[in-house]
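[job 0412] stage=complex_fold ligand=magnesium ion status=START
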Amino acid sequence: MNDKTTLFSIKMRASRMQEGRSEHISGAERFCREPMAARLAETLIRRALNHTKGKADHVNLKLEAMKREDFLTLPELPVRTISVETSTEGIDKALDLLAGLGLQNREAIRLLIDSMHNMRGAVLVDADTYTRLEPDHTRGVRATYMDYEPDEEKGIPSSPAKKDHYSEALVLASKVARAPGIVAELCISDDPDYVTGYVASEPTGYVRITKLKEEGDPKGGRLFFYRGSRENIEKTIRFLEHTPCLIRHRQKTNGNGKTGISQAMPGVPLLMRCRKILGDLERQRLRRHIEALSSAPGREISLSSGRALLFSSNDYLAFASNPQLKKKAMEAAELFGTGSGGSRLTSGTLFLHCALEEALAAFKHREDCILFATGYQANLGTVQALCGKDCVILSDALNHASIIDGARLSKAEIVVYAHNDMEDLEAKAREYEGRPGLMVSDAVFSMDGDILNLPEFLSIGRRHGFLTMIDEAHATGVIGKLGRGIEEYFGISEKADLTVGTLSKALGSEGGFVAGNREIIEFLRNTARSFIFSTSLSPAPVAAAREALRLLEEEEEHVKRLQDNIRFFKHLSSPLLPIPPDTGTSAIFPVLVGSEEKALHIAQGARERGLFLQAIRYPTVARGEARLRLTLRADHTKKDLTTACTILHHLLRDEDIGPEAGD
Ligand code: WAQ
Ligand code: MG
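[job 0412] stage=complex_fold status=DONE, emitting structure tokens
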């Protein structure tokens, strides 16, 4: 009887004949479970018959049974109030709020407000041209099918049943603000004696303004501001008029009886800024949603949506789940505990750290090495410490964010050269010759998978007197015959002055390092802020990384298997997928898509077919250069690779993207 999977929508409309025309008096709508439907209907009819606007002679009541699964649940917008003395001041405040949302043409909005007359629906306004977009100008666009979530026990809405301007408006605004393309709403009541109105949007929340018109003024209306393409208007209207939405009360207390913090914060400008930016990201399809795995991040993973083959990890050699690494990590935790409890310059240096630094220096054929807590911190701290205001940093256009951030912190002059373009670098190096300077580049570019022209890079550095630094995060354990990185790959004995690496990718652990000249490393130990002011790595990852180095040096099959997979996949994919021809030596394969929307769509499709990979979008890559980033692992089977290639080929074809896009 009390069926929780069905909800009833009850709508009431009251009108009266006036001078031969039907005049709207009031309307209301509710959702409830079946046992309560009759009582709610009665309440609404009573309300229709006793309205301040006059007696109705026509009441329309509509009951519809709807499936619970068709409903969207949305959080109620947070509320704050701006008190004003006069309606002029109120309108000014409303215009300020709208301007903050990018609706700057105050005159155009004033004209729209002045031309408000009592319509059934709202005026749909183009947020850029301020023209009206709704198909029927006398009716307007209606927001409908929305109410508070019904009370779990009683099955009636948790909102008051009597007419309450505020709660009804808040429910409506909470739906409208989430309609695709709607950037803001302005509302003025049409009740002559109700002067409080509001501006609502996702970033600002529901902002009540105590006076938007003078008492006794019967004119009111709603403006829905829309930004988007003309083709998508239909989608917006469909959402407003047909998608049933349940609004979740914010006042609901959590387990310990406290209300959520957002309740207390809506007036804080910085919070508003966060909300606005998050809303913008969402609209541009750039918002990230973190997904949690319920298994180890190995070749095959478990997600809430099921199992999937992992094609987006940097655990290239599958060392993160290697039994020997795990054993060493556990032993270290057993002997030395789970945390180091100090920074490297205080009590946080164990002999394990020193041993690993020595091993890494030997592995990279350098004099010395310094460990950092992450690869990001290694680049950040090194570039910042090395360069000062008087220096110049020549940096590849596609360098990793950690290099860019370090360069910015250093306050040096940053000169960006075209990606892997040695002519451009040469020209710029010549121009800045004589200044203390650093040339810095990724060895394998993290989002494109291509490889730095190292011999040329080093020779430019030597000729023009710049220190050279390379970031081998995606090179170590991957390229070079024995996986020793980019110098082995090119088979040259000349070395970059500094090489940065990470323990968290092919080495299956966590942390970063810089290897190079003894004096420079010693200088970094004394000056690199991200080194000095971070707690040192805990014993387990240090021990695991040491073991990874041993495996890399003593068991050639790990690197060999990975490189085999890379060759196989390159051969397989080149006629089928848009992958640039200069890639396919590192384990990173960018599948170029272009549109952010399409990239997300393909990644989602891949997920549904058991393939986990990431859609890479702005700001990680340039706008309009969205891609799927596939990374290979040593433990992928040939069948895994074939499956991935086939699935992607089909998904791309469905989006009209062919292999030639990568050339
Ligand atoms: N969808 C779109 N527009 C509507 C809808 C709807 N469902 N219902 C009404 N409108 C338009 C229509 O043009 C009305 O003339 C105008 O909005 C005003 O409607 O926090 O009572 O129902 O205390 O009079 C604001 C509460 C109350 C502020 C607003 O609007 C507060 C109110 P009314
Ligand atoms: Mg009204």
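The first helix runs from residue 34 to 49.
[job 0412] exit 0
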